[in-house]
Design a protein that fits this description.
Helix content is 37%, strand content 23%. The strands form 3 sheets. The protein has a 7-stranded mixed sheet. It has a 4-stranded mixed sheet with strand order 4-5-14-6. The longest helix has 15 residues. It starts with a strand and ends with a helix.
Length: 307
């Protein structure tokens, strides 16, 4: 049986090497993301034939496997995914679980269909599609479609004595305190909010060991919003966290705009992750007018579905 490994800080370079072989627009494919969510999703991994497979198991749910990551090698050669998929299927048989493979883009879907014709039923994992925007659009907020956003920012600037500040590890305590104020008010309303808090704590407690950049908004010296992200591809950044004190009107909007303006002007696109099927979050992300969605898929065995 495959020996699944835990995701730990000392494995950061190894895992990142596979993630970086081919630019993936999928927000989940950074070491930071895997590490901060590793407890909630019992995030494990295995390296097979010089390819990486992430093997998460959300609390109470089945374990799944990603389509092999890093099959495009540094020397330009391409690894054979067939024996790797077969080893994954054997793992599911040995554990008595139904095979569940997560595919991170259309290319992975095409490769799986070509390698195993008629074997898998592939469905879209809509609640986990990533929203991608132009950095310039969310920085300038030009035109009628962003008129409301621009008004929120202008009102914030008039109401408050504020400043943008680049974050350092020393700001971690303030960020956790800000998040916890929101958490206290929402903990009985939002499913899985405890897991989000756990991920936030993991990120800030390990800030110095992760390749992340943060920014915050202060009003009269008090932190009222923060955002954290990192490069995902050469021209795309990903935002892992963004929180604000909603008692300050427009705090979320100005945090979004200022973080991109100060930290990500060398990038063309920004991935602001998924909406997880939460209606309010979906409405908010759609209101910023994404230029495209990063689609994700789930593959199950065709025979299992028919049975």
């Amino acid at each position: 049986m495959l020996e699944l490994q835990k995701i730990t800080l000392d494995k950061k370079d190894v895992i990142s090497r596979y993630l970086q072989r081919k630019c993936s627009k999928n927000s989940e494919f950074t070491f930071t993301n895997l590490f901060m969510w590793r407890k909630s999703y019992d995030m494990r991994y295995v390296i097979l034939n010089d390819m990486l497979c992430i093997m998460p198991q959300h609390r109470g749910g089945p374990r799944s496997a990603t389509f092999p990551i890093g099959f495009m090698r540094e020397d330009g050669s391409e690894g054979d995914i067939v024996p790797v998929i077969e080893m994954l299927l054997e793992y599911f048989r040995e554990t008595g679980a139904e095979p569940l493979i997560r595919l991170y883009d259309d290319d992975a879907v095409e490769r799986l269909i070509k390698a195993f014709p008629g074997k898998f039923l592939i469905t879209e994992d809509v609640n986990y599609f990533d929203y991608v925007y132009r950095v310039e659009d969310l920085t300038r907020l030009a035109g009628k479609r962003y008129h409301g956003k621009k008004n929120h920012i202008n009102r914030f600037k008039k109401l408050y004595h504020w400043e943008y500040q680049k974050m350092t590890p020393e700001n971690s305590g303030e960020c956790i305190a800000l998040f916890d104020r929101w958490y206290t008010n929402k903990k009985n309303e939002i499913p899985g909010i405890e897991e989000e808090r756990e991920a936030v704590l993991e990120l800030f407690r390990n800030w110095k060991d992760l390749d992340i950049t943060g920014g915050c908004i202060r009003v009269d010296g008090k932190m009222v919003a923060f955002s954290v992200g990192e490069p995902l591809c050469k021209k795309m950044a990903v935002i892992h966290l963004e929180h604000a004190d909603t008692d300050y009107e427009g705090a979320f909007t100005i945090m979004n705009q200022q973080f991109l303006e100060h930290e990500w002007q060398d990038f063309e696109l920004v991935n602001r992750e998924e909406d997880m099927g939460i209606p309010g979050m979906r409405k908010a992300k759609e209101s910023y007018r994404p230029v495209f969605m990063v689609k994700k898929y789930v593959a199950t065995m065709m025979s299992e579905v028919k049975a």
